Each structure stands twice: as structure tokens, then as C-alpha cells.
Amino acid sequence: MSVDIDAAVIANRRLSADYNVLSLAAPEIAAAARPGQFVMIKTSGGQDPLLRRPFSIFEILRDAGGAPIGVSIFNKRIGAGTTLLSRVEAGTRLPLLGPLGRPFEPVDPPAEAWMLAGGVGLAPFVTLAAALAERGTRSTLFYGARRAEELYCVELFEAMGVTIVLSTEDGSRGSRGRITVPLAAALETRPLGNPVKLYVCGPTPMMRACAQLAHAHGRACDVSLEQVMGCGLGGCYSCVVLARGADGGVPHHTRTCIDGPVFDAQRVVWDAVAAH
Ligand SMILES: Cc1cc2nc3c(=O)[nH]c(=O)nc-3n(C[C@H](O)[C@H](O)[C@H](O)COP(=O)(O)OP(=O)(O)OC[C@H]3O[C@@H](n4cnc5c(N)ncnc54)[C@H](O)[C@@H]3O)c2cc1C
Ligand code: FES
Question: 23, 45, 162, 269 - which has most CB atoms within 10 Å?
């Protein structure tokens, strides 16, 4: 059940010139949220931008007793709305709708979970890692960026016991090159009898490459698509992608805000997905 509230900004933590973590008071959303779900945020009090913007729920914020009090978002500045969110000050109130969308389904032991994050695609994985840890499922985060300075918040995953595999395109941290290189090596050496499920979020070419590798090795793979969204509620059709039915049938246009953002990667018609 989603709610629409005026959420007070608790804190705005700057990570770099382009990234910040925004904490928002939203106990109802925090209590209802499942891993990989998102919120729609109105980034300005006026009409510019008019439409809300979608953001993965990054962290569930809790009080000293463990009760959920809010959510944070991991914001990358790319345009008007995300620039406003990078500057917003504590105490400001922002209209916040959520939680929304189809969540990740965490696997149970003995299966393992491999999370694949590219850049800002890290955002839905803190909540997934927490859900996996609760079930006792072993998990690994494969996290790639262009350079070391763009790998953020790794310590959140380390604190949950997640195995970390890093890569940077310039080789400044982790292995040099794309994250698909260590992923391919890990898939190659993993015995088929050891079940593993892949969860992927990042730039479209990266998600597509991970989906192809998973398919080639006969592993289940879910992707979280980041289409442009106008409403988040199924009303505007701005977010459609071509996807096959669950039975693998004829592809049809499906709304990523309500049928996703999480999809079985084999359902997605990748040639028709806009490359972000
Ligand atoms: C389910 C979901 C979860 C998301 N989670 C996060 C998150 O956790 N953190 C985060 O920083 N961003 C996230 N995004 C992306 C975020 O919604 C966009 O970056 C944001 O809407 C851009 O708004 P803007 O006003 O800053 O940019 P605009 O001024 O609207 O656009 C600037 C440029 O960015 C392009 N653009 C717009 N939307 C996207 C997009 N989805 N992906 C790539 N390019 C885009 C536009 O085409 C334009 O060229 C998510 C998107 C979805 C659908
Ligand atoms: S964002 Fe409006 S229908 Fe999906």
C-alpha cells in the first residue's frame, strides 16, 4: 500500500559534486517498503519541474529502538530535479509517494545472491542486501564505476557481511575494466549444482551484458529498469518497455512502474530498451 506524504528532509549528505544521500522522514513508507521498490519525489515547490521523479529507496532509516522512521535516496545529479535534490536543506518538506513498484524477491539458502551494480545503480541494493542477510543468504556485490572516487557506500554492504568485488574502468580500485569481467570469471568457475541468482541495476548496456552472461550460464537474473517515469502509478504510459509474457509469449508494451521496475531479464526485449 503506497501513501503520499509531505516528508521533511532530515539530512542531506554530500558524497561528491554529483552524488548525495538525502534522508527523509517517512515512517509509513519505511515500514511498508520491500527491497528494490521506489518512491516518486516532487523536487520543487513550484511548477519546474512539474512532474515527480522516481528514486529507489536506498536505506530504511530506524530509530534507536529499530522502528522505521524514514528512507534515504542516493541521488545522482543529472538534470533539473536531481540538481534541486542535491541542494535541498534539512527541514524542507517534499511530497513523497511510495513505496511503489514490483520488488526484488530475495532467494533463500542454499542459493546465493549476486548483486551487480553500475554507478547509481547501487541504489536498490542496500535494502536487498539487508533482506538477504535476514534470511541467512550469502551475497556478493559486484560494483563497477569509472574511477575509485565514484564507488560509494561500500561500507554499508561490508557491515552486512556482503562479499565485495569492485571494478573501475581506469583500474584505480578493484580490477580494471567493466564489472562484467569479474562476473564472467565467477560464472565460469561456479559449479552448476551451486545455485545463484543475479540481481542487476545500472546502465542499460551493462544490464543487457549481465543478462546475456546469466542466460549463457543458465542462471536466473532479475534486472531493475530505470525508464523515464511521469507518474509512477500506471496512468501516463511514459515508462513502457517491450517485454515478453511470463510464459515467454509475444512481446507487448508493459509499464515498468507497476509491472516493474524489476523484471526477469529474459522477458525484456533489450533491442527496444532506451540506452541510458
Ligand atoms: C525506478 C527508478 C529508480 C531510480 N532510482 C534512482 C536513484 O536511486 N538515484 C538516482 O539518482 N536516480 C534514480 N533514477 C533516475 C532518476 O529518476 C532520474 O535521474 C531523474 O528522474 C532525472 O530527473 P532530472 O529532473 O534531474 O533530469 P531531467 O532534467 O528530467 O533530465 C535530464 C537528462 O536525463 C535524462 N534522464 C531522465 N530520466 C532518466 C533516467 N531514468 N535514466 C537516465 N537518464 C534519464 C533525460 O532524458 C535528460 O537527457 C531512477 C529511475 C527509476 C525509473
Ligand atoms: S510512470 Fe506513468 S504509467 Fe508508468
Answer: 162
**Which letter, b or e, does each residue of 116-135 get, where b requires 16 or more Cβ atoms within 10 Å of its Cβ?**
bbbbbbbbbbbbbbbbbbee
* Closest-lying ligand 2 atom to the alpha carbon of residue 257: 4
- pLDDT tens by residue, 78-132: 999 999 999 999 999 999 999 999 999 999 999 999 999 999 999 999 999 999 9
* Residue 75 CB contacts under 8 Å (≥ 6 apart), including other chains: 19, 20, 21, 22, 55, 82, 85, 86
Give the mean pLDDT of 247-262: 91
Task: With beta carbons less than 8 A apart as the criterion, state whether 116 and 183 touch.
Answer: yes
Structure confidence at residue 46 (pLDDT): 81
Question: Quick one: cell of 175?
Answer: 580490477
Q: Say how many C-beta atoms besides its own lie within 10 A of residue 185's C-beta.
A: 12
Distance 211 CA to ligand 1 centre (A): 22
Atom of ligand 2 nearest to the CA of 54: 1
Quote the percentage of the chain above a pLDDT of 90. Answer: 91
Q: Which ligand is nearest to the CA of 101?
A: 1
Question: What's the pTM?
Answer: 0.96
d(CA 10, CA 96): 14
Query: What cell does 229 get?
Result: 517515469
- The closest residue, in CA terms, to atom 10 on ligand 1 is 75
